[in-house]
């Protein structure tokens, strides 16, 4: 049996799934950094930073253990919820930034 999450995905689901998983993580991490850099309010920046930090800790722990994922039904829900919050914040902040630019151009 594999000793970390990445090996488990690769061995049980295949190389293509592993690459797709890494691609999803790359996109989410990139959007998370964008959220942190472009947050205008303190609450958005705090939420962005805490979700990004949670995801980074999660990915780091995935290298060393599978015991972290002991509660099999609850763990994926938490993981994907963090990802959805990061993406939703990205969409929200991008729309606010775009609206601000369009308001400046119209005046």
Write the layout of secondary structure elements.
Elements: H1 5-13, H2 15-38, H3 42-61, H4 74-106
Helix pairs in contact: 1-2, 2-3, 2-4, 3-4
Features:
0% strand; single chain; 107 residues; elongated
Please characterize this protein's 3D structure.
This protein has 107 residues and is an all-alpha fold. Helix content is 80%, strand content 0%. The protein has helices spanning 5-13, 15-38, 42-61, 74-106. The model has no long low-confidence stretch (mean pLDDT 81).
Helix count? Answer: 4
Rg to the nearest angstrom? 17 Å
Mean pLDDT: 81
Amino-to-carboxy terminus distance: 63 Å
Q: How many strands, which pairing sense, and closed or not: the largest β-sheet?
A: none
Give the tally of β-strands: 0
Sum up the overall morphology in one term: elongated
Strand content: under 5%
| Broad structural category | mainly alpha
């Amino acid at each position: 049996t594999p000793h970390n999450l990445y090996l488990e995905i690769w061995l049980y689901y295949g190389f293509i799934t592993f690459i797709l998983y890494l691609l999803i993580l790359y996109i989410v991490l990139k959007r998370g950094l964008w959220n942190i850099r472009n947050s205008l309010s303190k609450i958005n920046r705090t939420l962005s930073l805490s979700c990004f930090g949670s995801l980074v800790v999660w990915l780091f722990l995935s290298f060393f253990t599978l015991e972290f994922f002991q509660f099999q039904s609850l763990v994926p829900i938490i993981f994907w919820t963090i990802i959805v919050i990061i993406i939703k914040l990205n969409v929200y902040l991008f729309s606010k930034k775009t609206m601000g630019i369009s308001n400046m151009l119209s005046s």
